[in-house]
Amino acid sequence: MPTVEWTGDGVRLIDQTRLPEEELYVTCRSASMVAKAIRNMVVRGAPAIGAAAAFGAVLALREPDPAAGLRAIRASRPTARDLFWAVDRVVAAADPLEAAQALARESIDACRRIGRLGAGLLKPRPRFITICNAGALATVDYGTALGVVRAAHELGLEPSVLVLETRPRAQGARLTTWELQQLGIPFRLLADGAAGRAFQEGLVDLAIAGADRIAANGDTANKIGTYPLALLAREHGVPFYVAAPVSTVDLATADGAGIAIEERPEGEVTTFAPPGTRAWNPAFDVTPARLITAIITELGVLAPDRLASLRQVLAP
Ligand code: MRU
């Protein structure tokens, strides 16, 4: 079942806070429910958030106070560019539901193309390292960074994956492992701090991550810990790829300094700490464009400094 799907009177989401223990689905029938599901990470991952927000906007436009519903959705999480792009697209459409459904369909197509284009960069038996979850769960279906792994698997390239746990929400440990297990792709789970050792041991051929927002100069916001992963890749002479649909590219933001980075509750970090411990919990970091080998989009594999070529495609 897709991660995000319109049911006729609402949007059905697989509850990602319950995986991998339970496969539960929730249906949001109001804009405020969609906003809450995005904020609480029932649905997460930029393209999945975008699709949920699109259907949330459809619900908002059917409510007595559409502006309030749209405001709640826009305020749910600040970093994923797809959220704002999706809401704007639905609001501007003559037929909002048809626009949201088209967006969801296009998102699946985009992921499959990203997968195929990314797999074209690989040699046989590629050993990936990845962070967070940029798989089917983070999209409507198929995935971006994990879509590349999946396409490689489908092409018989025999990929394997080192999965970073991704504290504090453990998207790697809970979600990426779950997806790879279902796909039958070999993987091993690593504590985040073990990444350096993996590079030193020569266990990594390439690093790949998704993106929440890519600035015009190629600076890329993604899950906290992506920047250190890119630094390790550079230090060890290993390519570092970002895989993302063009909807994640924000040409209106010149560089990473202009990207709003979400800060989440301290309690997500203090699980093992004594009561009263203060924490700082930025959900994303920004990887400078100079550390990115290429950005794999559905329209092609682009050098990070060539995003301006998308200007015409991305024009409203
Ligand atoms: O906080 P999350 O789980 O929504 O963060 C998700 C990521 O950082 C993903 O890598 C990104 O959204 C791309 S998903 C295809």
Plain-language structure description:
There is one protein chain. The two termini are 31 Å apart. The mean pLDDT is 97. This protein has two domains: 4-108, Four Helix Bundle (Hemerythrin (Met), subunit A) (Up-down Bundle), CATH 1.20.120; 112-314, Rossmann fold (3-Layer(aba) Sandwich), CATH 3.40.50.10470. The chain has 316 residues and is α/β, with parallel strands linked by helices. The chain is built from ten helices and 14 strands. The protein binds 5-S-methyl-1-O-phosphono-5-thio-D-ribulose. 5-S-methyl-1-O-phosphono-5-thio-D-ribulose is lined by residues 44-47, 80, 132, 134, 138-139, 144, 171, 209-212, 222-223, 283.
Fill in the keyword field for this structure.
316 residues; alpha/beta; 14 strands; 10 helices; 4-stranded mixed sheet; Rossmann fold; binds 5-S-methyl-1-O-phosphono-5-thio-D-ribulose; globular; Four Helix Bundle (Hemerythrin (Met), subunit A)
